[in-house]
Structure formats: structure tokens, C-alpha cells
Design goal:
Blueprint: H1 11-28, H2 36-40, H3 47-63, H4 66-89, H5 95-109, H6 111-114, H7 122-136, H8 143-153, H9 156-169, H10 177-197, H11 200-221, H12 225-246, H13 256-271
């Protein structure tokens, strides 16, 4: 990672650093002497990298490692500038429109800062934000339209939580957690039946219903399902690593019973 000699940087230094990045990306996309890989990219081929870099920023933020955070934010910023350069090359728009659009949106949605509106707290700010947002996108005033946007643009688990919270807000909700548990067990039975007797398409449909109902339990309990699953992934990897350190040959050479014993031993050691 580059060393920053002057911190905090002046406004001029910040603008110069951004301009240098813009120029480097433009050169990478230049047909005369540019990078073949960068020249092949389109808005859609870059989608996996946008997602990957966003998740890596989140991981760095969770770690609290400021060097890693700055590094990963740079990778994410590259994706923004690269997308803008691709659009510019295709005669669609450029980085100026990207910056102007978000700047105007921020000013418009913060009338308590840039206008004459008065607010008492963050909750009131949020209500105003949603009201202003609704006037910007009148086609999304209907609940179903908002849900379609969530389903289209968010990772499925995150979309489910947003969709169910919006539905609950208008009263489409169970009276108690008991009803949620009943729905979960109902969907579990239907999945079992589908796996035993129905088509693969039907099985996937029932699996989706079961996952949706499980996430309702998380919502009712105020649990973060994404964080919960990430924690399970981390623990699984830690235990597997502990198993590998405890043996002198590859895990594939052990029987299932031996692997289970190693797993329980690793679980116990990490628990301590």
C-alpha cells in the first residue's frame, strides 16, 4: 500500500490524487497502448468485481484494520471510476454525471442541512428522507414496486429481510412468534414431501419457502442472518484448519468416523 506522507491531505492533494487515478484508468482503457484485459471489459462483465470489492470492504471494516480499509476502499473506488470510463468510452455518460447526480441527491434529501427544514432527531431525518425519495420515484410508492427493487438489486438474504420488514410495517404480520414457528415447521414438512415425491423445480420452490420462513424467525428475534451465517462459515473453516494441523496426512485418507472424531476434538479445543 502507498505511504501517505501528509495526513490529513489538503483539498488540492485529494483532487490531484483522484485526477491521477482517473488518468491511470483512462490509459488502461486507451486502445493505443492500454491493457488488453481492461479494454475487453463492459459494464456487465465488471459486475462480479463490484460485488467482490464491496464485500471485501465490509470484511476490512469489520476487522478494524485501517490500512486494509483504505486499501479495499481504493479497490471499490476503482470499480466506480472504471465503470464511468467504460460508459464514457461507449458515449453513454462520464464521471462528472456520476458525481453531480449523487451530490444533487444528497442536497435534495438533506433539506435540514441545505435548506430551511428543522428536525429533532435521526428518526425524523429518516422519515423525511423516505418522503423525499418517494417524490423522486413515484412509481415506487406502491409496496410491491419497492419489493421488486429489493429482490432485483440486493443479495437474496438481505432482500428477504427488507421485504418482510416492509410487509410487517403495513400489518402483514403474525400475531406472535408462535405463528412464525408453525409456518417454519409447515414449510419443512412441505420440503420433505417435495424431495420425496415431486420435481426438482418444486423442491427448489419449497426450499425457498423454508428459507424465507427461517429468516422470519431471525427478524422476529432481531438476529442478523448474514452475520450469523458468516460466523458459522468462519467457525467451520477454523475447525477444519485445526483438524488439518492435528494430522500428518490429507483428510481424504480418513474414514468418516475418524473425521467426526477429529471434528469434535477441534471443536473442543477451539471452544477452550
Amino acid at each position: 500500500m502507498a505511504i501517505q506522507p501528509d495526513f490529513p491531505a489538503t483539498q488540492t492533494q485529494i483532487l490531484e490524487a483522484l485526477q491521477r487515478l482517473i488518468e491511470v484508468v483512462a490509459q488502461l482503457r486507451n486502445p493505443e497502448g492500454g491493457c488488453p484485459w481492461d479494454l475487453e471489459q463492459t459494464q456487465t462483465t465488471l459486475i462480479p468485481y463490484v460485488l467482490e470489492e464491496a464485500y471485501e470492504v465490509v470484511d476490512a471494516l469489520k476487522s478494524g484494520d485501517q490500512t486494509a480499509i483504505a486499501d479495499e476502499l481504493g479497490d471499490l473506488l476503482l470499480q466506480v471510476i472504471l465503470q464511468a470510463q467504460v460508459a464514457k468510452d461507449d458515449q453513454q455518460f462520464d464521471l462528472a454525471l456520476v458525481a453531480t447526480t449523487i451530490t444533487e441527491k444528497l442536497i435534495r434529501r438533506h433539506p435540514h442541512v441545505f435548506g430551511e427544514v428543522s428536525v429533532e432527531n435521526a428518526e425524523e431525518v429518516h422519515r423525511n428522507w423516505e418522503a423525499i425519495k418517494a417524490t423522486e420515484k413515484p412509481e415506487e410508492t406502491r409496496l410491491s414496486q419497492k419489493m421488486k427493487r429489493y429482490a432485483r438489486s440486493l443479495p437474496p438474504m438481505t432482500a428477504t429481510m427488507k421485504i418482510s420488514k416492509k410487509a410487517a410495517k403495513v400489518g402483514f404480520e403474525w400475531e406472535s412468534i408462535d405463528g412464525v414457528w408453525e409456518k417454519f415447521h409447515e414449510e419443512l414438512d412441505e420440503l420433505r414431501h417435495a424431495i420425496e415425491h415431486e420435481s426438482r423445480e418444486r423442491q427448489e420452490s419449497e426450499l425457498g419457502d423454508l428459507l424465507f420462513s427461517l429468516l422470519q424467525i431471525a427478524r422476529w428475534q432481531g438476529l442478523d442472518p448474514v452475520q450469523a451465517l458468516q460466523g458459522t462459515n468462519d467457525r467451520f473453516i477454523q475447525r477444519l484448519s485445526q483438524m488439518e494441523q492435528a494430522v500428518d496426512r490429507s483428510l481424504e485418507s480418513y474414514s468418516l468416523a475418524e473425521l467426526e472424531a477429529l471434528w469434535q476434538q477441534a471443536k473442543k479445543q477451539l471452544g477452550q
